[in-house]
């Protein structure tokens, strides 16, 4: 294999890695948006004296409901196990998860930038 072919292989590998990281970043952004929504909903529930919420049924259909215990929520802890937790500890957990995902996002953005710079350098070298 000559140098040009090796360079093309490396460039193609970088493109695949770049696309993969881009997809992972997109998924990460969706997870962050979902966690932000959970955080906002829990915060609103905690503040709302009436304990009224809208329960989504799908297709843009909602039903008004009243929460009997605004201080406790049920949290899926994995392996089909759900535990009752106080709202403040769940808020703390959600904030911790958001922070962890933001750190991962920053690392992935840095890696994405690094790959982009490598691709740019290789393209300039080929000219």
What does this structure look like?
The protein is of the alpha+beta class and 127 residues long. The protein has a single domain (3-126), classed as Helix Hairpins, CATH 1.10.287. It is built from 2 helices and 4 strands; from the N terminus they run αββββα. A hairpin with a 2-residue loop joins β1 and β2. α1 packs antiparallel against α2 (87-126). The mean pLDDT is 90.
Helix content: 55-70%
- Pick out the low-confidence regions: none
The radius of gyration computed from the alpha-carbon positions, rounded to a whole number of angstroms, is 23 Å
CATH topology: Helix Hairpins
Structural class: alpha+beta
**Averaged pLDDT, please?**
90
Question: If strands are numbered along the chain, what order do they take across the biggest sheet?
Answer: 1-2
Q: Give the domain tally.
A: 1
CATH architecture: Orthogonal Bundle
Binned strand content: 15-25%
Query: N- to C-terminal separation?
Result: 20 Å
Salient structural properties:
single chain; about 130 residues; alpha+beta; Helix Hairpins; two-stranded antiparallel sheet; 2 helices; 4 strands; about 65% helix; elongated
């Amino acid at each position: 294999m000559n140098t040009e072919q090796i360079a093309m292989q490396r460039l193609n590998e970088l493109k695949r890695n770049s696309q993969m990281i881009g997809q992972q970043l997109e998924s990460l952004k969706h997870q962050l948006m979902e966690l932000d929504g959970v955080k906002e909903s829990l915060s609103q529930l905690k503040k709302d004296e009436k304990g009224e919420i809208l329960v989504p049924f799908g297709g843009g259909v909602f039903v008004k409901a009243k929460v009997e215990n605004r201080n406790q929520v049920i949290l899926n802890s994995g392996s089909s196990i759900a535990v009752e937790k106080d709202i403040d500890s769940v808020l703390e957990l959600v904030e911790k998860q958001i922070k962890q995902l933001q750190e991962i996002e920053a690392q992935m953005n840095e890696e994405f930038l690094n790959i982009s710079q490598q691709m740019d350098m290789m393209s300039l070298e080929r000219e």
